[in-house]
Amino acid sequence: MQTTYKTLKSQSEGLYKEKGSKFIAYAVPCYTEEEAKQYLEKWRKEHYQSRHCCWAYRFGLDKKQFRANDDGEPSNSAGAPILGQIQSFDLSNVLIGVVRYFGGVKLGVGGLIHAYREAAMEALKEAEIIEVEVFHHVQATFTYEEMPAVMNWLKKMGLEYRNQQFELNCKLDIQFPLNRVSELTEELTDLGEIDIKILGEY
Q: Which of 24, 169, 192, 201 has its CA 20 to 30 A from that of 13?
């Protein structure tokens, strides 16, 4: 069983310029399509005057979940070369978006492929690439009254968690070591009426 994979520690940026056009690349650790949509929406708002925000992502241990999008550029001239850089660096759970400001001179399909590839490469060159351990991820849903018991248990077990929402119904994503999944799932459900949704292993 694969127990590690390569990804990014945090967001990095790259810049490539060609004939007046400016290509600004963002590379981020990202785990789901929903998370990718949020990043893309944020970048489009920040660069509302730009012509295009092209992107690609790859998720999962087997690296088989991937997508690329040209966002109005000629077919396969933007998303594919961005995805190619993710593959070249052998990364997973990564999203790269490249924002283009048009400089008035058309680059042609070959020029666009080169520009998007270079921008994505620059962002990855600036990134800190890390090898991380694979965990079993679950989303726990519980009542506000059960929150203290859950949080105390997480602290006692030394478990990492993210995406917490503390409202009337509380939610958070927890990562379990692969060799303790059954034991920890049982302990968590013993704390109360806690609903567990499996998010996957990554």
A: 201
Structure confidence by residue, pLDDT tens digits, 79-90: 999 999 999 999
C-alpha 47: how far from chain center: 20
How far, rounded to the nearest angstrom, does the alpha carbon of residue 51 sit from its chain's CA centroid?
Answer: 23
Q: Which residues contact 47 (CB under 8 A, 6 or more apart)?
A: 24, 53, 99, 101
What's at 9, amino acid-wise? K
For residue 91 the two structure tokens come to 């990364």
At residue 61, does pLDDT exceed 90?
A: no
Burial bucket for residue 14 (CB in 10 Å: 0-12, 13-18, 19+)? buried
Query: Can you tell me the distance from the alpha carbon of 135 to that of 3, in angstroms, rounded to the nearest whole number?
Result: 8
Strand partners, 34: none
pLDDT of residue 1: 64
Other beta carbons less than 10 A from residue 66's beta carbon: 15
The residue assigned the tokens 């999008």 is 69
* pTM of the complete model: 0.77
- Domains defined for the chain, CATH in brackets: 4-131 (3.30.230.30), 134-201 (3.30.70.240)
